[in-house]
Specification:
41% of the residues are buried. The protein is built from 11 helices and 16 strands. It folds into 2 domains: 239 residues, HIT-like (HIT family, subunit A, 2-Layer Sandwich), CATH 3.30.428.10; 136 residues, no CATH class. It has a 12-stranded antiparallel sheet, sandwiched between helices. The protein is α+β, with helices and mostly antiparallel strands. A hairpin with a 2-residue loop joins strand 10 and strand 11. Helices cover 29% and strands 19% of the residues. Helix 9 crosses helix 11. The chain binds zinc ion (ZN). Zinc ion binds next to loops.
Length: 452
């Protein structure tokens, strides 16, 4: 008995190829992630079942979860809020506990009660010191009875969740010094949350009408994005040990969200993620990596979804889950170095991708940016945002082989999304933008590497 010949190594596989039976094999050109789409599985329903649905009174203020506007004391003290008066949007920083109900926040920024990377980690590993602004916030917040009551209640909540006693060893509530010590992470932590106002869409009469990113207006989405960018920049400014700030949005439980209430998270970490470091090495050899393998490749495969002057949205290749990618066309790498128009351009395409996804599909939005560390002054990487549909759970096959089986190949994703984008544009739900063929030839249109 002889061993049959096996395929051997040689030239690397192209990022995207269709096999004779219709199987589509993808290799992510940046990360090497392998994805196979098997024919005949693309039409399964992808929408998440809402679970128990109850009637809701649309005239009552929302109180569905701890991120809702009537439950402001269930989150840590606000670092900032964005309020709206017609077309005027204003940031209010560090609102005191007894003034929380004086205005209606369209978006709120606060520390995560349960941090991924804790303040204790930053202090003990890096000698991180709470920035003066955060220390002053803490002092003033704890100078009022309402602030003290809020912080005490939060410490109890956190202790209860950790299974610890809510009080000190002596059974006494913490004194002022202990209160200040234990609540430091609420004010000076490096894991933030940005929450949108609505839990359900306006006028909802049932509990399953969750307000997703695509339900915001383009103006609201722009403010959500800009407010998050501001928070991202502040994390870098406040923590000199932060090598990277990860920004992401989990939508619905299968995508990792604790509440079905629209929010983003920002987590400072003390290392550049290995995948980002690998991309930086590849970028050093080929500064036009994202132009060539991101946008140009998508254009050549007919995977361009939408474009405006400042950004382009394509279907991603080689992602574990069906994915759309929005690339900024700005010459600036950092989101906060984008002009207001450039930021709006990115936001509009991202908003359109969310709206086309719909509120029932669990998804992760993941921001990718150039780590700003020393030694990378000459490096350039475009701000890009990946939106992934979390419609399958990786299982044993994925674990054993590292090959992800996906039910929707890139062209099938394009064919699902493109008609929805046209519909949304026709009804004015998304901002004006070019779609599909109207985008023209977008190859070479990224300017991060100094061209275009
Ligand atoms: Zn809520």
């Amino acid at each position: 008995m002889t061993t049959p010949p096996r395929p051997s190594g040689g030239d690397p596989d192209p990022p995207l190829r269709r096999m004779a039976d219709g199987t589509v094999k993808q290799v992510n050109p940046f990360t090497g992630t392998q994805v196979w789409t098997v024919p005949g599985r693309a039409h399964r329903p992808i929408e998440h079942a809402p679970g128990r649905v109850v009637a809701v009174d649309p005239t009552q203020p929302e109180a569905h979860c701890a991120f809702c506007v009537t439950r402001l004391l269930e989150t840590t003290p606000e670092k900032a809020r964005l309020v709206r008066d017609g077309d005027a949007w204003t940031v209010l920083d560090r609102v005191p506990a007894d003034e929380l109900d004086a205005t209606t926040p369209e978006f709120r920024l606060f520390g995560n009660l349960f941090e991924i990377v804790s303040l204790d980690y930053w202090r003990s590993v890096h000698g991180y010191r709470m920035p003066a602004r955060a220390a002053a916030h803490q002092r003033s917040y704890l100078s009022t009875p309402a602030g003290v009551a809020h912080v005490r209640a939060l410490l109890d909540t956190r202790a209860a969740a950790r299974g610890a006693s809510a009080t000190t060893k002596t059974g006494e509530a913490p004194d002022a010094t202990a209160l200040a010590e234990r609540s430091r992470s609420f004010f000076g932590g490096c894991h933030d949350v940005v929450v949108a106002r609505r839990h359900l869409v306006d006028g909802a009469t049932t509990s399953d009408r969750h307000a997703a990113a695509g339900d915001l207006t383009p103006d609201e989405h722009e403010q959500f994005t800009a407010f998050t960018v501001r928070a991202m920049r502040n994390l870098y400014l406040d923590n000199p040990h932060a090598a990277y700030v990860s920004v992401f949005q989990n939508w619905l439980a299968p995508a990792g969200a604790s509440f079905a209430h629209l929010h983003k998270q920002l987590v400072a970490i003390d290392e550049v993620p290995a995948k980002t470091a690998r991309e930086l090495s590849a970028l050093a050899l080929d500064p036009h990596l994202y132009t060539r393998l991101g946008v140009d490749h998508a254009a050549e495969e007919g995977l361009v979804l939408a474009a405006n002057r400042h950004a382009v949205a394509v279907v991603g290749v080689g992602h574990r889950h069906p994915a759309m990618v929005v690339y900024s066309r700005s010459a600036a790498c950092a989101p906060w170095d984008h002009s207001a128009d450039e930021l709006r351009g990115v936001s509009d395409l991202l908003h359109a991708c969310h709206a086309a996804t719909g509120p029932l599909v669990p998804c992760n939005e993941e921001w990718h940016t150039l780590p700003p560390g020393p030694g990378r002054e000459g490096a350039a990487m475009p701000w890009r945002i990946v939106l992934k549909w979390r419609i399958a759970t990786p299982a044993g096959f994925e674990g054993a082989t590292g090959i992800h089986v996906n039910t929707i190949d890139p062209w099938a994703l394009r064919d699902r999304v493109a008609p929805r984008l046209r519909e949304l544009r026709a009804t004015g739900r998304i901002a004006p933008m070019a779609l599909g063929e109207e985008c023209g030839d977008v190859r070479g249109s990224l300017r991060y590497a100094g061209e275009g």
